Amino acid sequence: MFKDWSTFVELTFAGLTRGSLYALVALGYTLVYGILELINFAHGDVFMIGGMIAATFVINVFALSPYPGIGMLALAVVVSLAVAMAGCALLNATIERIGYRPLRGAPRLVPLITAIGMSYILENIAFVWKGPRPVSLPPTLPSGDAFTIGTCPKCASYQWSQLFVLIVTVPVLVGLVWLVRYTKRGKAMRATAQDKDAAAMMGIDVNRTISFTFLVAGALAGAAGVIFAFYQQTMQFNTGFTLGLIAFTAAVLGGIGNLQGAVLGGLMIGFIQDFNEGLGWQAPGSAWTHTIVFGILILTLVFRPQGLLGEQIPEGG
Question: Is the pLDDT reported for residue 281 higher than 90?
Answer without folding.
Answer: no
